[in-house]
UniProtKB/TrEMBL annotation, chain A:
It comes from the Bacteria. The chain crosses the membrane at residues 12-32, 75-96, 123-144, 156-181, 188-208, 238-258. GO terms for molecular function: ABC-type transporter activity. Keywords: Membrane, Transmembrane, Transmembrane helix. Signal peptide: none annotated. Pfam families: ABC2_membrane_2. This is ABC transporter permease subunit.
Length: 265, 293
């Protein structure tokens, strides 16, 4: 019942975000054919970019001239960043909203256990993020058909999207945990968004600076590194495990903590 | 017979000063039990602890014989709760909200919803976000009553209702009482508690001051005594114990007295007054009296 309610309540934002991401993907892919024709110019353009930046955005290993290279550099940034923002907003809002809008008192006075509340809200987050990623995959596949008749290494693409999905769930898990644990939830949505931006920034820094490259172990943006996954056709198991552990840890801790928490209304 | 609500040395501390200390009282089945105290005394804290929205720091409580922490979900199946400020999901219509609430109680009683809405003059097709404070409260009343709970917990229920609606509301409560529903009625307005309740618990700064039947509260020996005298200033009452308050109004001397009336009358017998009026104080004054102590 609560799951259905949460799903309905968040459906509008899911639709809006889906339209935006599908629009961006299709738009980018539709300009790929004309860009591929100008590949010589594109390569010059890429070479003009400082080496550090090239590395940070994977341009040293991916080519803008191939469809997946183009996808990994241009579109991947959008799906990871926008998707993480969406996931963080969704997951922090789904709990924090009850307290911010003072509806928690109504919900908690109903005959429903805290565990059911948090489990159904968690499932609603999962369902929304899955659907959002489904939209990414489908609109990418559609876009590919129109963009090029090259044979695509689909395995690499699906591995990349698996990494993206896990990354979105990682940010969703972190934001979900934040809002389940916070006593005052008013600023939790901003904090969750801030986490996404800080992590993105860290991944860029880790790419540019040799000295700070250890930061790549900190940021989920590096875990879903398009250059690595697309060139090696391999999603680093260590990263998959780290994200898996973070996702499970966050949702389970949220589940455990929320059942014992005083809800301030 | 087992009490419906049984609170034992319940404490909840949070922040620096807010909270409740060592509250103990019980409510019998079918009773209308008042919970009286000024704003911030800990009424809502007690209620939220009973509903397990917050957890007790120490002590325990049982509702329907079940522990409020261990069995909170089952307990809430039998409770209708009207919070002091009603907040619902803004994007829902009144009827959807009520159905949503009913679905958790596994009762689909469209007839009762329609009936209650009609009596309270509530438009079920409106969106929650468009409702006035009073209409939100009405929605809250319907929501609390629709699954015919065994225990009604009402926190400042009349706030936001106009006098006519308050009457309807009290009628509804009387019908509930007639059905045997136990009612826990929290308020800072004493006259409405006086109107409905069998017993009251008085709470102040988080501590329970007294549990008393309304009858006994009204029957205590606190009295207003007014003397008509020529020169009130010249009256010397220093020999009489038990005067709580005294003031002079023109040719009248007004006292609030607590104690044995006979010894008072003997003490003032020689005073030069032309008239003496002894009145029962209102519950508000009785309460103020306890509150000042």
């Amino acid at each position: 019942m609560l799951f259905r309610r949460e799903f309905k309540r968040n459906l509008r934002s899911l639709i809006i975000w889906s339209i935006i991401i599908a629009g961006i993907i299709l738009m980018y892919l539709s300009i790929f054919p004309s860009m591929a024709k100008e590949q010589a110019n594109m390569d010059n353009l890429v070479n003009a970019v400082p080496e550090g930046m090239q590395k940070a955005f994977g341009m040293d290993r991916l080519s803008l001239g191939t469809l997946l290279g183009f996808y990994g550099i241009e579109i991947h940034l959008m799906t990871t960043l926008l998707g993480s923002i969406y996931a963080a907003l969704l997951a922090s809002g789904i709990i924090a909203k009850e307290q911010n809008e003072k509806t928690a008192e109504f919900l908690l006075a109903l005959p429903i256990s805290r565990r059911t509340i948090i489990a159904q809200k968690g499932l609603a987050v999962l369902a929304n993020v899955l659907l959002f990623n489904f939209v990414i995959v489908v609109s990418s596949l559609i876009g590919f058909q129109f963009a090029s008749d090259q044979d695509l290494p689909y395995k690499a693409f699906f591995l990349l999207e698996l990494a993206v999905l896990m990354m979105h769930l990682t940010f969703a898990g972190i934001a979900f945990l934040f809002s389940a644990v916070a006593r005052r939830t008013r600023s939790i949505v901003s904090v969750s968004l801030g986490t996404v931006f800080v992590m993105y920034f860290l991944s860029v820094v880790a790419g540019i600076s040799e000295r700070l490259s250890w930061l790549k172990y900190v940021s989920p943006f590096k875990y879903a590194d398009s250059a690595q996954i697309l060139t090696e056709s391999r999603f680093h198991p260590l990263y998959a495990v780290i994200m898996g552990v973070v996702i499970a840890g966050c949702f389970l801790s949220a589940y455990w903590y929320y059942s014992k928490k005083d809800i301030a209304v | 017979m087992k009490p419906i609500v049984d609170i034992e040395r319940l404490s909840k501390t949070y922040g620096k000063s807010r909270g409740i200390k060592d509250i103990t009282f019980s409510i019998e089945e079918g009773e209308v039990f008042g919970f009286i105290g000024p704003n911030g005394a800990g009424k809502s804290t007690t209620i939220r602890t009973l509903l397990n929205i917050i957890f007790p720091t120490s002590g325990s409580a049982r509702i329907f014989g079940k522990d409020i922490v261990a069995h909170s979900k089952e307990i809430r199946e039998g409770i209708g709760y009207l919070p002091s400020e009603v907040f619902y999901y803004d994007d829902m219509k009144v009827i959807d909200l009520l159905r949503f609430s009913a679905s958790f109680h596994r009762c689909r009683n469209e007839k009762r919803i329609a009936e209650l809405a009609e009596r309270l003059d509530l438009d079920l097709s409106r969106k929650i976000e468009d409702l006035s404070f009073g209409n939100r409260k009405k929605t809250g009343i319907v929501q609390a009553l629709l699954h015919e709970p065994k225990l009604l917990i009402l926190d400042e229920p009349t706030g936001g209702l106009d006098p006519l609606m308050q009457n309807t509301f009290f009628e509804l409560l009387k019908e509930e009482r007639a059905k045997g529903t136990t009612i826990f009625f929290s308020s800072h307005v004493l006259s409405e508690v006086q109107r409905m309740c069998d017993r009251v618990a008085i709470i102040k700064e988080g501590a329970l001051i007294k549990v008393e039947t309304i009858e006994n509260l009204m029957r205590n020996n606190l009295r207003h005594i007014t003397f008509a005298v020529q020169q009130p200033e010249s009256i010397d009452l220093s020999g009489i114990r038990g005067i709580v308050k005294q003031e002079i109004l023109g040719t009248h001397l007004k006292l609030l007295y607590e104690g044995d009336l006979r010894s008072f009358v003997q003490g003032v017998a020689e005073l030069p007054f032309s008239d003496m009026l002894i009145e029962e104080p209102s519950l508000d004054e009785i309460f103020l009296h306890y509150y000042m102590k």
